[in-house]
Design brief:
Layout lengths: L2 H21 L3 H29 L16 H19 L5 H23 L2
């Protein structure tokens, strides 16, 4: 996965979670998703800017589409699995500064999944 595709995936996560946030009747789910979609853009921006500082401009970010899913937990878990599988393709394992930014993104997914699974 290219870095630009990685950032595009995070943009998709923002769009999907914002949409579900607006259509849930659960206050806990509403707040957990709000925290996610607000924070994921900051994380995507931090990653893209640091990547640009290391490697030059990231290039065009493809805006991905998504087939509607009834379960946002499954969507986030699938994205998390993809992030964890591709992280060393996106950025070299030895580039610890950029890997740490990916760790922050993984942390946001994990804490959001916890809130959605056990608190909502």
């Amino acid at each position: 996965m290219k870095a630009s595709d990685f950032v595009g995936m995070l943009f998709l996560a923002r769009d999907v979670t914002h949409s579900v946030h607006l259509n849930t009747r659960s206050y806990a789910k509403h707040k957990a998703l709000q925290k996610f979609y607000e924070d994921i853009i900051d994380h995507a921006d931090a990653f893209a800017e640091a990547y640009n500082g290391r490697h030059g401009l990231i290039g065009g970010i493809s805006l991905q589409s998504h087939n509607k899913t009834a379960n946002v937990v499954d969507f986030l878990q699938n994205q998390l699995d993809e992030i964890e599988a591709a992280r060393y393709d996106v950025v070299d394992r030895k580039d610890t500064s950029l890997q740490q930014l990916i760790d922050n993104i993984v942390e946001l997914y994990l804490t959001t999944l916890y809130k959605l699974r056990f608190l909502a």
